[in-house]
């Protein structure tokens, strides 16, 4: 029975499912909209003219008054400074490690795993 195994002869026909080509783009769109629409609404409402310094969801008019008062709240300014410090320090620490990882000199990860894309997402043992 030589020649009757897998790979011998013509390839099996591939079933066409045209609806599945819309599944991933639709899912990505829904997830991104779910993530980004609230942020866009928050940014839009930063231009709302609120009466008596209160939060209101009814549109009262356009203003940039809040951006003039951006750094008047000391606690929020301090939080911004701390966030920028953490971002800077983590960036300084990660860049050399990422360079070593990409060149293959990172301990425990071989360069072949980087080429597969698996280790770039998560350097786990089964990617090696």
Q: Can you offer a commentary on this structure?
A:
This protein is mostly helical. The chain folds into two domains: 20-70, no CATH class; 71-128. It has helices at 23-45, 65-68, 74-103, 111-116, 118-121. It is flat. The model is unreliable at 113-122 (pLDDT under 50).
Number of separate domains? 2
Q: Please summarize the sheet with the most strands.
A: none
The backbone outline, from C-alpha atoms, is flat
Query: How much β-strand is present in the residues?
Result: under 5%
pLDDT < 50 stretches: 113-122
Number of helices: 5
Work out the number of β strands: 0
The helicity comes to 40-55%
Structural class: mainly alpha
Head-to-tail CA distance between termini? 37 Å
Based on CA atoms alone, the radius of gyration comes out at 27 Å
Mean pLDDT: 75
Order of helices and strands: HHHHH
A few lines on this structure:
52% of the residues lie in helices and 0% in strands. It has 5 helices and no strands.
List keywords for this structure.
mainly alpha; 5 helices; 0% strand
Describe the SSE topology.
Elements: H1 23-45, H2 65-68, H3 74-103, H4 111-116, H5 118-121
